[in-house]
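Quick one, tokens below:
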């Protein structure tokens, strides 16, 4: 029995000294000291030992156990210290190095411009309503007084999914959907992305953004439209801004107008920015056509209204003096960081 215990001791010490990681030390502990370990097996075989020899054998087993446990604990402690020391060396921090900057993103120029426009109109009691980008031809054209054979449809030639479904060319379909609900009066703006079959250049893109407004109520006149857009222009471009209305034609409004504002660079005197005219065109507008009201279930004899639409990119280009629309979509961080 003594020789067997000596053999177990020597084998355990050999494996402890050859272990190079804590997991192997744990394997040694389980093999020799565990419930099914070799020393436990020796104790279970005590029934075969003579009664007068059992105390001596039990003492020998305990001595071997204590020695193995002591060496295991000591070896593990040294191993942990060595691992911690190597880890500290690997993770050393040079306090003289510059710290890493926490780069936080910010809003896109289009988003900044849209939020500014929304703030102005919400302040005047308008509601912001969005609609689907994939729209029925019925809402995108028919209900806006643009039948299948109308020339304006060619001007807005767009991307068709089939003969009845298109990628919307304007956000006006949202207005038609709201008018159909019959909840009057209406004061709303509808921002969103629109699509037209345009070539990409400094001022055009097949995908861009619009913000359109609509007011429907009793006794609404062109004077209300002019007053609203004058307040909008002053809030957006400055209190000294003046507005000018030029007659125009839109199928869904009558009468219709294009709106110019005094150049905010030169104050209307004429400069390179406004091409010497002193004025900058910003949007189109007009009184809602009676036929549009009828098609949306509103009595034109009782209700009138006005509508207007502005290109969001145009607002951003003017407000931040950007000379190429493509810069807004190239995602060049050097450009976007300026806003």
């Amino acid at each position: 029995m003594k020789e067997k215990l000596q053999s177990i001791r020597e084998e355990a010490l050999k494996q402890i000294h050859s272990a190079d990681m804590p997991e192997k030390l744990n394997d040694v502990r389980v093999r020799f000291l565990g419930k099914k370990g070799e020393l436990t097996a020796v104790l279970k075989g005590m029934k075969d030992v003579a009664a007068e020899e059992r105390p001596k054998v039990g003492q020998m087993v305990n001595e071997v156990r204590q020695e193995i446990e002591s060496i295991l604990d000591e070896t593990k402690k040294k191993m942990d210290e060595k691992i911690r020391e190597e880890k500290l060396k690997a993770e050393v921090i040079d306090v003289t190095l510059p710290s890493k900057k926490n780069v936080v993103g910010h809003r896109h120029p289009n988003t900044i411009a849209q939020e500014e426009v929304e703030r102005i109109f919400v302040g005047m009691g308008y509601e912001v309503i969005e609609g689907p980008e994939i729209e029925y031809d019925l809402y995108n054209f028919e209900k806006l007084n643009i039948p299948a054979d109308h020339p304006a449809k060619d001007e807005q030639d767009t991307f068709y999914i089939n003969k009845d479904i298109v990628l919307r060319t304007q956000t006006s379909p949202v207005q038609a959907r709201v008018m159909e609900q019959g909840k009057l009066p209406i004061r709303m703006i509808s921002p969103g992305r629109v699509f037209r079959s345009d070539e990409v250049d400094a001022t055009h893109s097949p995908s861009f953004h619009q913000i359109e407004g609509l007011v429907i109520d009793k006794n609404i006149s062109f004077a209300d439209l002019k007053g609203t857009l004058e307040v909008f222009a002053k809030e957006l471009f400055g209190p000294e801004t003046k507005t000018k209305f030029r007659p125009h034609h839109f199928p869904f409004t009558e009468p219709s107008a294009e709106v110019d504002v005094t150049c905010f660079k030169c104050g209307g005197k004429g400069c390179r920015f406004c091409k010497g005219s002193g004025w900058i065109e910003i949007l189109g507008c007009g009184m809602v056509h009676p036929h549009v009201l009828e098609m949306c279930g509103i009595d034109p004899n009782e209700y009138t209204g006005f509508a207007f639409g502005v290109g969001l990119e145009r607002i951003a280009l003017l407000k931040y003096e950007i000379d190429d629309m493509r810069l807004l979509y190239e995602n060049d961080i050097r450009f976007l960081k300026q806003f």
